[in-house]
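The following block was generated as part of the benchmark described in Methods. Ligand: 7TS.
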Amino acid sequence: MTFTKEKTLADKVRADFPILNQEVNGKPLVYFDNAATSQKPLLVLNTLRDYYEQYNSNVHRGAHTLSSKATDAYEAARDKVAKFVNAASRQEIVFTRNATEAINLVAYSWGMSNLQPGDEIILSVMEHHSNLVPWHFVAQKTGAVLKFVELTQEETFDLEHFSTLLSDKTKLVSTVHVSNTLGCINPVKVICEQAHKYGAKVLIDACQSVPHMPVNVQQIDCDWLVASGHKMCGPTGIGFLYGKLELLQAMPPFLGGGEMIADVFLDHSTYADLPHKFEAGTPAIGETIALGAAVDYLSSIGMDQIYAYESELTSYLFEQLGKIPDIRIYGPKPKVAGLGRAALAAFTAGDIHANDLSTLLDQEGVAIRAGHHCTQPLHRHLVIPATARASLSFYNTREEIDVFIKALKDTLDFFGGLFS
Ligand code: 7TS
């Protein structure tokens, strides 16, 4: 009797990602840097090419056929993103260049005009620089005070500490859904519930959750949520801001120019309705349409399926890394924190510098990231200069984890030999 191995999700989708089928330094590529940016399926590549090849034209202005086609496709992408995160209205989705720009939009538009000296903004020590630096600007300009949620023993978001920071002074909580370094999945629904009791607004940085699990803005009940297209199988140069309608309506424009106006006079102007009020100038049209294709692609697989498969990979990755002495992985163990964790592992290996590890792994065709991953304050908090990080996606396999583990062991043996 012959047994046929059941096909994994990666087996089913792998051929959609031609970039994965190549050798790097003479070895088959193992791409484990998905938290930095994901790879793009053919559907997305073809959608981008079709736009430039067949109907490249500016949106919202021309009465000609190509322009109508581009406008329809651009606005259809908004519908797709709205449905993907379950926004109550398509007007609640604003396209931005990336998550960083979306956070800056909220910081400049809402933060600069709503915060007073002594108001408090709660962030956490695990934030990406893009959810820190814009709030530094706001605090410096308005006199608002920044407070930081620390970590539990398991290196997750400390809800107890968070509740001690909340008060009537709290005007904003801005925090990450899934940490790009610790991999923890933060209890964003509870965070919103608690913050709202004090009348504070909540922004969720969903860069590392939207590509890997179902995200439902109405269920979370966040006031804003941001994500980057390039981490969710879409192109670079496109991301989005979700915001509750009334809040976005009350916020002043961020950037001024064409597309965002109703009427312009020499000395003043009136603004377009949402979401155009926040989309000044010619947008990234092809990239937005291709983001719509990425959303179609992810939806056709199903975010539940993606999360379930990636969770299996996470367990296997931890099991294998756990067998190597001197490896210290940061963040919670899979399934220990009750909230699960993302398919990434940031780790140190004894005294070996993360950059040296990643350079030697690259010689084996394995792409991982080394450094502070734009979470310098978190690394300082953990008293480590840098980590090496393997971050996986649904097109990765157990076999690739085996290759990574072997390359890592060989590298550690090499360093062991050097120092013995
Ligand atoms: N927030 C989180 C949680 C992120 O992981 C990143 C990017 C950003 C915000 C910023 O995204 P951008 O598209 O606006 O630049 N994180 C990473 C990373 O982990 N490695 O490279 C980029």
